Structures are given as C-alpha cells and as structure tokens.
Amino acid sequence: MTTLCTILFTLLLLFVCCSARRTYLFPGIGHKSPKQPLQTSRPFNLAHRGSNGEFPEETAAAYRRSIKEGADFIETDILSSKDGVLVCHHDVILDITTDIAEHKEFAGRQRAYDVQGFNITGFFIVDFTWKELQTLRAKQRFSFRDQQYNGKFPIITFDEYISIALDASRAVGIYPEIKDPVFINEHVKWPNGKRFEDVFVDTLKKYGYRGSYLSKHWLKQPCFIQSFAPSSLVYISSKTDLPKIFLIGHTAWQTEDTKQTFLEVTSDAYFNYIKKYVVGIGPGKDTVVPAVNNHLQAPTDLVVRAHAHSLQVHPYTFRNEYQYIHFEFHQDPYIEFDFWINKMGVDGLFTDFTGSLHDFQEWTSPLSPGNGERP
Ligand SMILES: *[C@@H]1O[C@H](CO)[C@@H](O)[C@H](O)[C@H]1NC(C)=O
After folding, report:
1. Which protein residues are within 6 Å of ligand 1, measured from CB?
2. CB-based contacts of 284-292 (< 8 A; 24+ apart in sequence)
3. Atom 13 of ligand 1 has which residue's CA nearest to it?
4. pLDDT digit string (tens) for the chain, length 375 residues
5. DSSP alpha helices (H): ranges in the chain?
6. Is the entire prediction scored with pTM above 0.85?
7. Among candidate residues 196, 211, 188, the one with its CA nearest the CA of residue 78
8. Kind of pairing, strands 118-122 and 111-115?
9. What domains sit in the chain, N to C, each tagged with a CATH number?
10. Atom 12 of ligand 1: nearest residue by CA position
C-alpha cells in the first residue's frame, strides 16, 4: 500500500510539473490529421466540468487537463451574460465559484430572483456583461479540494470551450448543457426574437457540429446536447440532428418547464415519447441505485427499462472523495466504477476525476492490448 501511494504520489507530482500549458491555439492548428477517432468500444468517459477534481470547474485548465487524462467528452454548462454572450458556468450565481466577493465595484449588484421556484439571492450571471465577467477569476467549489488555482483562471465562453475540444490532437467530444433555459429566456433577450436555444444551436453549427449519433461526421466532431428541460430538447430537435440526452434530477425534483415529476419522466410511457427526441438519459446515480445512510440499496430497474427503449444511460456524478462513495465501495472509486460499468451496464459516466476513470478502463478494457497509457 505504501509503495502504491508512493507511485501514485510520484505520478501526481509528474502531472503537476507537466501542467504548464501553452495558451489557446486556433482550432486545426498544430495537429496532424486524421485524428485518433473517438473510442466507441466501452462506456464514455465524460469529464464533468473538466477535471474539476483538480482545477476550478469549467476553466480552460480543467478542460485541458481532462483531455490529457483521457476524456472522451468534455462536459460543460452553458449560461448567458446580460448582453447575450454564451459562457461556461454551472451556477446562475457567481458567488460560489468566482472571486466576485472581492470585487468592490460590483458590491451593489446582488439580487434575489425566483429560479425554478426557489428564491435565490446572489450575484447573478445575467446581471453582468461579458466585459464585466471577464474581470472575474474562478475558484474551487469544494473546500476539500486543491485551492492553489483560485484566482488564476477566467470564465470562458462557449466558443473558447469548443475551441479547446477542436484543438485536441485526437477527436474529443463536447457535451454542453443548455442550463436553466426557462430562467435565461426570462432574463436575457437576443436580437430578432431569437431565444437561448437558437443561439446555443447557432454556436454549434458555426463550428461544424452536426450529424446523428455515430454518423461519419459526428464521429469526427462528437457532441451530445444535454438538458433538464424536455421542451428545450424537443425544440432543439427541430434545429439539429445532433444526439440529445435528457437529464433527470433527484426523486423530489420536477422539470423546470413542463413541471413533471421524477416518476412521470421515468415512466415507460414517457420514455416512449421522449425517445423520439433523445438518445439517452442522464440520471443522478442515487436515483438509479438508492442509498440510505450511505449504504447502497437494491438497484432500481431504470437502466434496464431505459435500455429496453434503446436509451443510453449516463449517470452523474462520480467523485473520488469519500463523501461521495457509498460504504459498499470501501472508499475505493475503482470498485464503484466496476459496479456501474460491469454490473449496472451504464453507457457513460460523468466524473470529476477523468484520470481515475481512464486508468480503470485501461486496466480492465484497454483500447489496444498492452496499452496502459494515457493518450
Ligand atoms: C427573496 O429573498 C430576499 C432575500 O432574503 C427577500 O428580500 C425577498 O423578499 C424574497 N422574495 C420573495 C418573493 O420571497
């Protein structure tokens, strides 16, 4: 165990030392073609907000790290600035993951808004122009994660995020969520009556993203569009054939747009309807296999039923820290990956620790025999 720790620590040091990244290059510059294609022989490694277990979430550093660590897809949340610029940020408020509290010039900009039925107070992203957002710096969300990169990286735009994926030396997919569309459409207006969904799809088209799941073009520029709002996914389906994933919240949640409950949207009748528009679902892992007092319970039939409807299942969120790993996995994320991949049979995993999932998959189902290396 000590030897293993030493090896892991040395590896960690090596990665940290090699982390000085060049600044962003325009897509297509500096890599040979054709690129190494997207792997499709094992469940997708979905880098949740980039490698945010190591770097502040949704920053260029977090995304570049996750690509280096073997991500099949880099995942993000798209919100909008006051002046309609699409940016990568998870929360509608800036309080938790940026240094806004240190910006005295914005001290008077706190507001309280209704967000999906909750009265939330904070500094809302929709009250800041892109020029203002550029002055902020990201910080780590969780106190138990590495804080050394706080204040170092800016918020990035949807365009910059796409460019990071396109700039990779192999085919790396994007997995953008159209985030809180009801709230965004209420607070941000675009010219010519365009709504959030239109501007979102326009951006994807601008960079050449198109094609259905596993189509020739899709494999070159893979993309899943995800949302918790089914009406946004249905609307987007009329604009692009890119594959879509319907996200499903916790069991007490309801959809922000159609106000449907968890039970309704996970019924066979609903799967029959939504499968005309989406290729899969993205449920929280605890709704697929419930936990009580951190002990795993019997799995629900959600994966089996989704598969019976030819829907993929991409559960969230896999995190290495003990707070998120049920006792049955003995604090070991690899045992958790084994359970979800080999017993539950899921098709993709959203993880904060892309490197760990990649290592597990290379050990247990290597893409090429004897290849234990990160790409
Ligand atoms: C929302 O919360 C704020 C701050 O606590 C409060 O001032 C405001 O009255 C609340 N609004 C509603 C509609 O409850």
Report:
1. 112, 119, 121
2. 284/248, 284/249, 284/250, 284/315, 284/316, 284/317, 285/315, 285/316, 285/317, 285/318, 285/340, 286/250, 287/248, 287/250, 287/251, 287/262, 288/313, 288/315, 288/344, 289/344, 291/326
3. 119
4. 445 555 555 444 444 444 444 444 444 455 556 899 999 999 999 999 999 999 999 999 999 999 999 999 999 999 999 999 999 999 999 999 999 999 999 999 999 999 999 999 999 999 999 999 999 999 999 999 999 999 999 999 999 999 999 999 999 999 999 999 999 999 999 999 999 999 999 999 999 999 999 999 999 999 999 999 999 999 999 999 999 999 999 999 999 999 999 999 999 999 999 999 999 999 999 999 999 999 999 999 999 999 999 999 999 999 999 999 999 999 999 999 999 999 999 999 999 999 999 999 999 999 875 544 555
5. 2-17, 60-68, 130-133, 158-166, 181-187, 196-206, 216-220, 230-237, 262-265, 268-274, 285-288, 302-308, 333-338, 354-364
6. yes
7. 196
8. antiparallel
9. 21-91+154-364 (3.20.20.190)
10. 119
Q: Identify the residue whose tokens are 């010039």.
A: 105
Using the mean position of ligand 1's atoms as its centre, give its distance from the Cα of residue 120 in Å: 8
300 token code pair: 């629900």
- What's the gap in Å between 256 CA and the centre of ligand 1? 20
Tell me which amino acid residue 222 is: P
The token duo for 57 is 């979430």
Q: Which tokens hold the place of 319?
A: 């995190």
CB 90 within 8 A of CB 136: no
Q: What are the residues facing 120 on neighbouring strands? A: 113
Q: Which residue has the tokens 């904060």?
A: 352
Q: Any residues with CB less than 8 A from the CB of 118 and at least 6 apart, and which?
A: none
What's the rounded Cα separation, in Å, for the pair 43 and 337? 11
With contact defined as beta carbons under 8 Å apart, do 357 and 318 qualify? Answer: yes
Q: Which of 51, 43, 42 is nearest to 69 (CA)?
A: 51
Instruction: For a ligand 1 pocket test, name from 119, 121, 123, 124 the mutation site with the most ligand atoms within 8 angstroms of its C-beta.
Output: 119
What residue has token string 């660590």? Answer: 69
Rounded distance from Cα 12 to ligand 1 centre (Å): 46
